């Protein structure tokens, strides 16, 4: 990972103002200045513990000043937040954490002078507002504070202000499964909002790993917290978003409950927090536990463009400061490699399209690692949708997905025989091509990124590949500004393109997406060779071939099982080349569990998603939905238990290494 160290220093000489300090916060101020605050006194919880503040200007930190104190009662966890020409300082007051009260001061001159304190939420007990990490301003203008409490178990939530911090509305606690999270729970979240508007939360936990949750309504409600692959030592974390959208997380890459607080490091994510780079160590002293005070902990981080400013506790004696600069990342051309779910269509009980459910489902796909979305396809029951519904679904998915690419099929009825004359349809027939071209234009008007053509939609079943080329050439000429994809759809019959025809399509430079369904690694290898040096990427649909396909340089996966447990497929994408023995075991799991597709799909997938908390019903328009039974439900439930038991075992193996 490339980055430049612009500055590294301690903010003050240790033990000159107080014996111990902890829990720093950092903020970018105007004119190149940086502000930092922390609590300091005899020791944590001591009666003399106050909030201290310092400003860095011209590369030099000024003298620390005491800016908040309460006689005989300790202060805790300051949080700085610059907003609309003023600097806010939040902090906690209380002898015991479960009885904390939150106070706030304001400065109109960037920390030179401060207002009198006021209680953030009058009558509060337990702590409201930011508990450790900074607030964020959402796109809708609201300010969101990452909060938590530590009474009767730990719990995370957010406080939302729509009037500039005058009043605050508390969310419900972030839900989590007690069976997978031992100990006290989760506290001290850090937040970011992605380009689609979804708000994400990472949380410190007592389980030895960082947990994650999402909100699609501006922090008012939160999804059930799930474990990430990031280790956590039950100590504070923080995150910032670079100007180019990358995330930088500062944390102790140590797993365990109250484990060592050394080293401290940062990792970078280029995919909205789904995967992370290896940790880059900032400070390290060998130690076995956090009681040795060889600690580097409680980091804070803010970003300005592609510069980040980091502070953290240095052995409880001073506060360490870093300024790092990251070069602009090079944008990859063409479509992203990775996972492309074939989307489902949520329906109401009256079999009408549930667009609110569709938005929630779209966010779920993206939050679970989708590089792109195949919105109108066989899995979404496209043949049973009206054209108006198909186009509205495509537009809804694209609007929800934001910058994430969306593919949608230009669907036409595909005749196999001329029923009037009982003979094969004439491959020179023009009306089918005209229908296809008209559908291409209407689909492109839904603002999707890729218009997908079915490989069986160009000519009749017995038509030649030369005839297919003629139709494709005409389509490309009639839609010069459209990027295209190809899908070897199995209904009403499967038409596989030869590697030679794939090479011809790739050579036009107009095709970027290919969903391949040959179920053959040999054919996949030939098609990958055929598209080398072109924008066309091949996405395999068969779960049993994923590992082999990735080993030969495959671009990603586009299959139905991403509707059940995308975590397995994301793990394979990220780790297949890191530990091939584990990858082979994961491939076995994926192959076995893929048999659930035969159990009344897509209703089985909708049932599984509902069990995972996605707010969609099981209704379908396909006739096989009527075959759904209690046995099918049990099959899905048993598969889930098997998958997560097996997957947890693999995670334990990985964490032990």
Verbal overview:
By secondary structure, the protein is α+β, with helices and mostly antiparallel strands. The protein has eleven helices and 35 strands. Strand 32 (484-487), helix 5 and strand 33 (511-516) form a beta-alpha-beta unit. Helix 3 (430-444) packs across helix 4 (465-478), helix 5 packs parallel to helix 6 (521-530) and helix 10 (603-611) crosses helix 11. It is elongated. Residues 417-429 have low confidence and may be disordered.
Brief overview, please?
By secondary structure, this protein is an alpha+beta fold.
Instruction: Sum up the overall morphology in one term.
Output: elongated
- Which class of secondary structure composition applies to the elements? alpha+beta
Query: What portion of the residues fall into strands of 2 or more residues?
Result: 25-35%
| Average pLDDT | 91
Strand order of the largest sheet: 26-35-34-33-32-31-28-27
Task: Tell me the major beta sheet.
Answer: 8 strands, parallel
Radius of gyration: 28 Å
The helicity comes to 10-25%
The count of helical stretches stands at: 11
**DSSP strand tally:** 35
Low-confidence stretches: 417-429
First-to-last CA distance: 22 Å
């Amino acid at each position: 990972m490339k980055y430049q160290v612009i500055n590294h220093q301690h903010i003050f000489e240790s033990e000159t103002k107080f014996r111990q300090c902890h829990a720093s916060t950092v903020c970018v101020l105007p004119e190149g200045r940086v502000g930092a605050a922390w609590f300091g006194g005899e020791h944590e919880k001591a009666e003399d513990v106050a909030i201290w503040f310092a400003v860095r200007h011209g590369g030099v930190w000024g003298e620390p000043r005491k800016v908040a104190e309460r006689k005989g009662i300790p202060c805790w966890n300051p949080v700085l937040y610059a907003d609309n020409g003023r600097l806010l300082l939040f902090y906690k007051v209380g002898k015991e954490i479960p009885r904390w009260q939150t106070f706030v001061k304001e400065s109109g001159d960037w920390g030179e002078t401060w207002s009198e304190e006021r209680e953030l939420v009058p009558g509060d007990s337990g702590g409201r507002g930011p508990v450790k990490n900074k607030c964020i301003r959402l796109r809708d203008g609201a300010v969101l504070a990452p909060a938590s409490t530590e009474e009767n178990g730990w719990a995370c939530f957010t406080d939302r202000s729509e009037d500039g911090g005058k009043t605050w509305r508390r969310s419900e606690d972030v839900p989590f499964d007690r069976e997978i999270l031992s100990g006290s729970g989760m506290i001290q979240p850090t937040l970011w909002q992605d380009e689609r508007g979804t708000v994400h939360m990472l949380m410190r936990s007592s389980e030895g790993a960082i947990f994650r949750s999402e909100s699609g309504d501006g922090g008012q409600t939160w999804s059930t917290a799930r474990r990430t692959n990031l280790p956590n030592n039950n100590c504070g974390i923080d995150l910032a978003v670079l100007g180019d959208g990358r995330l930088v997380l500062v944390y102790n890459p140590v797993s365990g409950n109250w484990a060592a607080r050394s080293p401290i490091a940062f990792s970078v994510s280029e995919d909205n927090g789904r995967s992370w780079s290896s940790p880059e160590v900032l400070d390290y002293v060998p130690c076995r536990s956090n009681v040795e005070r060889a600690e580097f902990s409680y980091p804070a981080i803010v970003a300005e463009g592609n510069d980040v400013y980091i502070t953290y506790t240095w052995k409880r004696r001073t506060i360490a400061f870093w300024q790092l600069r990251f070069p602009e990342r090079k944008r990859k051309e063409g479509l992203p490699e990775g996972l492309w779910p074939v989307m489902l269509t949520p329906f109401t009980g009256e079999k009408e399209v549930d667009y609110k459910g569709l938005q929630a489902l779209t966010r779920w796909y993206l939050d679970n690692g989708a590089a792109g979305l195949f919105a109108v396809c066989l899995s979404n029951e496209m043949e049973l949708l009206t054209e108006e519904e198909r186009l509205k679904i495509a537009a809804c998915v694209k609007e929800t997905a934001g910058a994430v690419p969306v593919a949608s099929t230009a669907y036409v009825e595909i005749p196999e025989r001329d029923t009037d004359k009982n003979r094969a349809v004439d491959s020179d027939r023009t009306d089918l091509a005209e229908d296809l071209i008209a559908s291409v234009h209407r689909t492109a008007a839904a603002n999707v990124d890729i218009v997908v053509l079915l490989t069986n939609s160009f000519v009749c079943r017995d038509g030649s590949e030369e005839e297919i080329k003629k139709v494709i050439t005409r389509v490309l000429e009639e839609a010069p500004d459209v990027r295209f994809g190809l899908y070897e759809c199995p209904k009403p019959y499967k038409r596989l393109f030869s590697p030679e025809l794939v090479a011809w399509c790739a050579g036009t430079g107009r095709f970027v997406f290919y969903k391949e369904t040959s179920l053959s690694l040999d054919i996949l290898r030939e098609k990958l060779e055929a598209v080398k040096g072109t924008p066309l990427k091949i996405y395999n649909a068969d779960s049993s071939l994923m590992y082999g396909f990735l080993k030969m340089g495959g671009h990603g996966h586009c299959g139905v099982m991403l509707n059940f447990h995308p975590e397995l497929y994301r793990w394979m994408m990220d780790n297949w080349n890191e530990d091939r023995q584990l990858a082979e075991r994961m491939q076995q799991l994926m192959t076995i569990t893929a048999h659930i597709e035969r159990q009344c799909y897509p209703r089985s997938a909708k049932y599984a998603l509902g069990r995972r908390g996605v707010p969609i019903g099981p209704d379908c328009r396909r006739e096989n939905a009527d075959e759904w039974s209690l046995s099918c439900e049990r099959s899905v439930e048993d598969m889930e238990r098997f998958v997560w038991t097996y997957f947890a075992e693999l995670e334990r193996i990985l964490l032990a290494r």
